[in-house]
Amino acid sequence: MAVFKTCVQKKRSDGFYVVYIRIAHNNSIAYIKTDFLVSSADIRKGEIQNPVVNKQCSIYIAEYVDKCNRANIKDWSAKEIADYLTKGFEVMSFSDYCRLFTRRMDEEGRETTSQNYKLAIARLEEFSGKKTLKFSDVTSKLINDWIASMKNTRYAKNGYPKAIKAMFQHGCDEFNDYDRDIIRITNQPFRKVSIPKPKAPVKRAVDVDMLKHFFGTDISGMKAPKGTWISRAERAKDVCMLIFCLAGINTADLYDLKPENFKNGKLCYNRKKTRGRRDDEAYIEIEVPQLVMPLFKKYRGRKALFNFAETYANQKNFNKCINEGIGDIRACYNETHPDQLEYITTYSFRHSWATIAQNQCHASTELIAFSLNHGSAHKTTERYIKKDYSPISELNRQVIALVFDNDY
Q1: Cα 252 from Cα 263, distance rounded (Å)
Q2: How far apart are CA 7 and CA 47, in angstroms?
Q3: DSSP state of 376
Q4: 3-class DSSP state of 325
Q5: Burial of 109 (0-12, 13-18, 19+ CB in 10 A)
Q6: How would DSSP label each residue in 239-257?
Q7: Which of 10, 69, 76, 384 is positioned for an S-S bond with 80, CB 3.0–4.6 A?
Q8: pLDDT tens track for 362-395
Q9: Distances (CA, A) of 191 to 95, 144, 268
Q10: How far apart are the first and last CA of the chain?
Q11: How confident is residue 339, by pLDDT bands cut at 50, 70 and 90?
């Protein structure tokens, strides 16, 4: 909870001090100016001694506390609280709320997801022609016109409006008190908006032969940049080997893993993307194949399981660099081979693992979803069952054997 206190700052030229109410919250400070003045005689050891001023300020503070109790200020800065208290709710614009919303996502470790939400509000502001949008500015006409402008996009026409809708509705839930009929956000634009479905995603999987070509590409001639011990291509090949041989693990998880996640030859972890949104915390276990055990030593971190978090500032930079290294490998292979390696990214290895598991190992879609740590459609039933993760490791053995010629 925010802390309120009366105080003064600099003495005015006429010898008096303006009285302020100081707000301290989340390691930040802000001030609300009052209409009261006190003299030096009213101040002792930095504290205001004027009883009339103190009584009136205590009334203000009681009102402020009551108003803060009606809003979820946990993640606000002191300035945001001061603006909310002095200028009313409308000062917390929709644009500002979106920044608050995405900041919370970042703090929850959902940086990758929050990036899409940040892009969504930026694109809506750009389309509207306003740098800052109020909640009242977000109308069904604006959203429908915006969607129409994106009709030829694959993802944006669906993903961006969904993100805006989610943030708008969270804002309504946070600032409207429906039980007491206190409605600060009165418009409901999405009642008259139909968000179109996205086009079918482009299949990112590559076949077994292409994977063999990729992992078999000779990159020994690629030198490490000055000041580094390994080339970008070598690191990319190793990371892609980890992704594929650990049942399509995400780079975000490789970046985030701790030593305690590796237990008795198994990788036991909670998927970063969804661990805060599932009852099972997106937990999964998989046996680590001997094929990649040397990579656990090669990239051993000081505090993390791998040193990726020590090498790159964040998960996004890590993933970007690995994709650039994949491009180096493709270019190296395509220079000397007529059967060109197609465009692939880190996601291709996760998709390829799933495709090979189904089409060549004949695994069920349900087992593949379990192996990829996707949420289950049988949530109620799962509460009764103690999970056995061994089928994931068994299926992983079969998939790896097809690409690496039984070298598990």
Answers
A1: 20
A2: 7
A3: P
A4: helix
A5: middle
A6: HHHHHHHTTS--HHHHHH-
A7: 76
A8: 999 999 999 998 876 556 556 656 789 999 999 9
A9: 20, 11, 43
A10: 55
A11: confident
Q: Which residues of 17-52 are buried (b: 16+ CB within 10 A; e: fewer)?
A: bbbbbbbebeeeebebeeebbbeeebbeeeebebee
Q: Which amino acid is at 255?
A: Y
CB 138 within 8 A of CB 168: yes
CA distance 177 to 69: 11
Q: Could you identify the residue written with the tokens 């690629």?
A: 222
Does position 408 have pLDDT exceeding 50, yes or no?
Answer: no
What is the 8-class DSSP label of residue 298? H
Give helix 78-87 / helix 51-69 axis angle, nearest 10°.
100
Round to whole Å and give the CA distance between 232 and 129: 41
Q: For tokens 């930079």, name the residue.
A: 317
Instruction: Tell me how far CA of residue 250 lies from CA of 31, 102, 241, 323, in angstroms.
Output: 45, 21, 12, 13
Q: How far is CA 387 from the centre of its chain?
A: 28
Measured at the CA of 241, the angle between CA 239 and CA 245, to 5 degrees, comes to: 125
Burial class (CB in 10 A: 0-12, 13-18, 19+), 248: buried
Helices (H), 217-345: 232-245, 251-256, 293-298, 308-311, 315-336
pLDDT digits (tens, 9 = 90+) for 185-223: 889 999 999 999 877 655 567 889 999 999 999 998 888
Mean pLDDT (the chain, rounded): 89
Taken in order 120, 318, 292, 339, the sign of the CA dihedral is positive
**Contact in structure between 135 and 94 (CB atoms under 8 Å):** yes
Q: Which two tokens stand for residue 156?
A: 């944006």
User: CA torsion, points 151, 157, 161, 162, in degrees to nearest 10?
Assistant: 140
Strand partners, 8: 19
Sign of CA dihedral 21, 25, 27, 28: negative
* CA-closest candidate to residue 146, choices 115, 166, 138: 138
What's the rounded Cα separation, in Å, for the pair 186 and 136?
A: 8
